[in-house]
Amino acid sequence: MKSAQTEYLRPAAAEDVPALLALRAEAEGWLRTKGTDQWSDPETGERAISKWRASIDEGRAWVVVGESGEVLATVSRGPVDRDFWTDGDHPETALYLYKLMVARNASGRQLGTRVIDWMSRLAALEGRTWVRIDTWRTNTGLHAYYERLGFKHVRTEAPSHRRSGWLAQRPAGELAMPEDLLPVGLQEGRYGGAASRVAVPHQKG
Asked: Given phi > 0 = left and psi -120 to 50 = alpha, else beta, which region is 101?
């Protein structure tokens, strides 16, 4: 009999920043062992972390936590990146997924897949057509991972000041693991009463 999943999503908070920075550092080290230069530029890392903190403040960053409250994964959503997507792509029709990371000690739980499914459901609820991503142009292993999850390569952009630019999208509402949906966590009521469901912030534009 399959054991019950204990992981759930909740909005990231300021107190999660140390855990998120540790997750980022772990991901950087792991990527180096995979023969990719992704996130190898310190300036890129510093800029990304600054934007990450802003995403937390704006309610755009989420974490997956385990039974003991430990951070196992994170994902953010954000506005369209105009270095890559143009008016011709109808940017308002998509939800843009960023900074998906899973702790190495949580590998094998399919958290990345389940987080993407959650974002896909959210995109559909908002009436969007696509979930879109951009990834490091040289990380072919990551490209293959997203393609296995149903993303289709749209094109590759290569602005001189960016190392990302492999663009892909998946239809909103499409699920890779419909039998194992990742729940949005329940938080204890403000006055100690029954738990209340976390509201999901919608992205404008």
From this structure: beta
DSSP secondary structure code for residue 14 in this structure = G
- Euclidean distance between CA atoms 107 and 51, whole angstroms: 26
**72 pairs with which residues across the strands?**
none
List the beta strands (DSSP E) in the chain: 8-11, 61-65, 71-78, 94-102, 130-136, 152-156, 164-171, 186-187, 196-197
Closest CA to 172 of 131, 203, 137: 131
Contact between 151 and 168 under an 8 Å Cβ cutoff? The reply is yes
pLDDT digits (tens, 9 = 90+) for 146-176: 999 999 999 999 999 888 899 999 999 999 9
- Output the pTM of the full model: 0.82
| Number of Cβ atoms within 10 Å of the Cβ of 121 | 19
The most distant pair of C-alpha atoms in the chain lies apart, rounded to whole Å, by: 54
SS3 (DSSP) at 84: coil
Residues 6+ apart with CB under 8 A from 143: 135, 153, 166, 168
